[in-house]
Amino acid sequence: MKITYVKHDDIDTAKWDSCIAHSVNGIVYAYSWYLDIVSEHWDALIGDDYKAVFPLIYSTKFGVSYLYQPFFTQQLGLFSSGHVSNDLVGKFLEAIPQKFRFISISLNTFIKFDYPAAKVTTRITHHLDLIEPYAKISSRYSKNTKRNISKAVAYNVSVVKGLSAFKLLELKKGNQVVPLKQKHFDTLKKLITQSVAKGVGEVFGAYDKHNELCAGALFLKSNGKVIFLLASSTEEGKNTRAMFGLIDYYIQQNAESHLVLDFEGSNIESVARFYSGFGATPCEYNHLVINKLPWYIKLFKQ
Fold first, then answer.
1. From CA 151, how far away is CA 145, in angstroms rounded?
2. Is residue 84 scored above 90 in pLDDT?
3. pLDDT of amino acid 293
4. In sequence order, what DSSP letters do the residues of 116-170 get, joined into one string?
5. Extents of the domains making up the chain
6. Which CATH number fits domain 131-258: 3.40.630.30, 3.40.190.10, 3.40.50.1860, 2.40.10.10?
7. Is the model's pTM score more than 0.85?
8. Which residues are within 8 A (CB) of 32 and not within 5 positions of it... i.e. 6 or more apart?
9. Do domains 3-122+285-301 and 131-258 have the same CATH topology?
10. DSSP class of residue 33?
């Protein structure tokens, strides 16, 4: 396969998005509109007239160009309409221009690859197949998850689809676990509004017995997968177990469909336990670090 480095302005976005749509491992993060939102600069490696593509999200610091994994984009790497072999992945990695002296990127779950030139770290996401009836899926919930869903019901938590981007972002701003900067909220606003406009995003809200918003979440549906991208709860929402009720509602609405719910993580034990409580199973993906910096700069990267 002939692999070509293509600058952003020369990328045929129609062909690019068609490749992602027809890729065996396509995912919402890789569409051109999504990459345009989450990154200021991205170029690409393109194989045989968009039969395979590899986005290169980059920035420059102290005169050094580097590749990085942007916020709200768990996995990227190689996407192909054909077989994603280790040999093909290796060829694309070798084709990354030498000007990118430091590389820190995450490959998608379809790529199980050990690259000698990189430090490879295994990371975890959690997948739940929604093809079975709700009764069968929910029968595999953990006892703790079933108990918390029952609490949400007892507290009269109700879930509705169609929460506005503004309300979800206000909820997130007021109840941050990991603090985000304003630029991140600006990115989220664009992701929510554009994904909903494209029919990819779905925003759900959970309300307490006083009809006050107490939890919210954004789901992105694409390529046979649903990404649980953004979620937030108030203290009342935590007390009433509203997020348990919200996720259970989403599973009810999408059971018996050819979808996999991707909870987006996590390596954190308590978060992983929350996702596995719904019957989700761990799924590995690789994070690569390739350091080609001079020794005197490498000292600062230890």
1. 10
2. no
3. 82
4. TTSEEEEEEEEEEE--S-HHHHHTTS-HHHHHHHHHHHHTT-EEEE---HHHHHH
5. 3-122+285-301, 131-258
6. 3.40.630.30
7. yes
8. 11, 13, 16, 17
9. yes
10. H
